[in-house]
Amino acid sequence: MSQLNNKIAIVTGAASGFGEGIAHAYVAQGAKVVVADINGDGARRVADALGASATAFACDVSARQDVDAMVQHCVNTFGVPDIVVNNAGMTHDNQPMLQVDEATFDRVFAINVKSIYYMTNAVLPVLRARGTGGVILNVGSTAGIRPRPGLTWYNASKGAVNLLSKAMAVELGPEKIRVNAICPVMGLTAMFEQFLGMPDTPENRAKFLTTIPLGRSRNPGTSRPRRFSSPAIALNSSPASSSPWTAAEPFDQSTSTGACNEQGTF
Length: 266
Prior knowledge:
Layout: E1 8-12, H1 17-28, E2 32-37, H2 40-50, E3 54-58, H3 64-77, E4 83-86, H4 102-130, E5 134-139, H5 152-172, E6 177-184, H6 192-196, H7 202-209, H8 225-237, E7 246-251, E8 258-260
Parallel strand pairs: 1-2, 1-4, 2-3, 4-5, 5-6, 6-7
Antiparallel strand pairs: 7-8
Helix pairs in contact: 1-8, 3-4, 4-5
C-alpha cells in the first residue's frame, strides 16, 4: 500500500522547486493534493501533470482571504486536509543588511512567517472539527540554525519558522496534530542565485560546497527538489511520525538532527 494512500494534502509554493517535488511525491504515494501557488499558471501546469489526484489554486499566502479560500477549496474538492505543507517562501538578495529596504523586509516576513499564522487560523478549525488529528509541515531552513552572511533578514524569518514549529507542536500535540519543520540548505530553485549573491556557475557552486557539512564531490551541496520530498513523506507516514514531538531536520548532508520533545527542550 502507498504510504499516503487516500490522504489529502495542501502544498503551498507548489508550482516549482521543493513544493512541486513534494506534490509529485505525495500523489505518487496515493495522496490527493491541492497545488497552491501565487503563480496560477504554474500551479495549473503541475496539477494537470498530476491528473485527477491534484487540483490547482492560485493563492498569495500573505493574503488572509486567499489562504481561507484555498482551505475551503480543499474541503470542497477533496475533503478536510490531513497534511498541510507550508512551503511557499521568498528571500532578499544576498547583500549587507542595511541595503534591504523595508518593503522587501515586510514581504519576506509576510510570506515566510505570517503565512503560517494565516494557514493555521484557516486549517486548525476544520482539523479540530474532524477530531482525528493531522500533520502540519513547515519548511524552515538551515539558515535559521547556522545563519549565512548577507541573508540576515531571511535568516531571521526562517529562525522564526523553526522555533514556531516547535511551539506549535507543544500546543497541538495533545490534539494529535503533529507539527514538524524540514530545514533544507539552498536548493536548485528559482531563488538559488539570490541566496548565492553571485551568478550560478560551476565555480561558485564549488565554493558553496565547501560550506556544507560532509560535502561530497558527487553532489554539488544543494538539495534537489525531488530528493527533498523524501523527508516530507517520512514525517507524514513513518511510525515515528505518530509521536507528538517536532523535528527541525537539517537537510544539508549534516549528520545532526535537532529535535524537541513535548516540553520544547532539546
